[in-house]
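Hey, I'm writing a tutorial for new members on how sequence and structure tokens pair up, and I'd like a real worked example in the thread rather than a made-up one. If someone can provide the structure for the chain below, I'll link this post from the tutorial.
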Amino acid sequence: MEYTKELIGNNLLQHYLQKQVKSGTVHHANLIIGPEHIGKTTLISNLIADLLCTQIEDELSCLARKKRGLCNSCSMLKRDNHPNVNVISPESSGRISISRMRDEISSLNMSGFLPGKRVIVIHQADCMTREASNALLKVLEEPNDNIFFFLLTENSHEILPTIRSRCAHMRMNLVSKEELRKAYDLTDDSTKVIQGLPGLAHKFLDKRKQLAYQEEIIQWILLLTEKIYSKRLVIGRKIWPKTVSREHLINYLSILEDVCRDNLMLQMNVNDSVRYVFATKELQDLQRKTSVDDSMKALELINQYTIKLNQPIQAKILLDQILLKIYR
């Protein structure tokens, strides 16, 4: 994780957590809820730095103060090799397995840690298997004053209720256009595409990346406008690599969902809700060739295939199936 980034927005939550660190009242289990790109990892990275810093001043760690001489803890955090911080993420299967959870829990009782607080961060905590969830629950039922868990998720309802009930809940809100403009010097069109998600702002900081991103979206719209499968493949080869991974497919499904939603908004004359405003011309062409019913079916199809991502899949085959069915 990166411990030197500034979090844009959610200032009240940031200040609340800083006060908790100062008063020593940080809960032993914390559930951080918010959409992708909102800054959940940044929020927790900053909190961990404050929690572990040995020279904290004015509720800020050495890293947050950009102090030249970092304490030993902040120095290790900056190098991302602090022995007291463990990070769990979904495995290649897309799930967090019982074996991975047991390994991390077992490590809490091993030597090699520095004295003081220990932290476990669980990214996409909703991806834990039931067995992994139960293993975590047993630890949460017997809290340790020096061990802190941070569960990050977009879908808190998919986490066991018994785990949720033992966590302090922190919900991150979308960031205002004004805050985004001030932080990143963005145009109105860019802030509209970003839709309150600071993580997406980085796509617009580099003009070349911005243009490439917009071109990719336009290619997807052109692909959906084309009804002939073989011609769709020709367009598709401009978009995806030879080997399509699960991560690629997750990104493509997200783009397809946004495009279909934009198309539906145009069909229903709700133009102010269109996200990809830079592709209005291409979206209008798609709108003319499809119906509201087509868009509803397309969104349902995307939802069905998103659910399939929780199963063992071959990403390229799944992508081919989507192209065969969507808007056809």
